């Protein structure tokens, strides 16, 4: 997920003490939980991440 956001031009905006990080591109902000790195992202969560990022899911190859 982080690779995808970076390839879309998102930059790390904030890494706090907790298990979440924020990536920013212009006025778009995406919050990711990093405590489950490498695990499968549930479909609804993935959809919400794409919505926050303004990325069209139809262009993503699985």
UniProtKB/TrEMBL annotation:
GO molecular function: endonuclease activity; hydrolase activity; mRNA binding
Sorted UniProt keywords: Endonuclease, Hydrolase, Nuclease, RNA-binding, Stress response, Toxin-antitoxin system
Pfam families: HicA_toxin (PF07927)
Family indicated by similarity: Belongs to the HicA mRNA interferase family.
Protein name: Type II toxin-antitoxin system HicA family toxin
Organism field: Ligilactobacillus murinus
């Amino acid at each position: 997920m982080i690779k995808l956001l970076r390839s879309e031009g998102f930059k790390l905006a904030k890494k706090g003490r907790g298990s979440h990080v924020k990536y920013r591109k212009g006025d778009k902000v995406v919050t990711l939980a990093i405590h489950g790195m490498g695990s499968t992202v549930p479909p609804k969560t993935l959809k919400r991440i794409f919505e926050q990022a303004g990325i069209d899911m139809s262009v993503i190859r699985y």
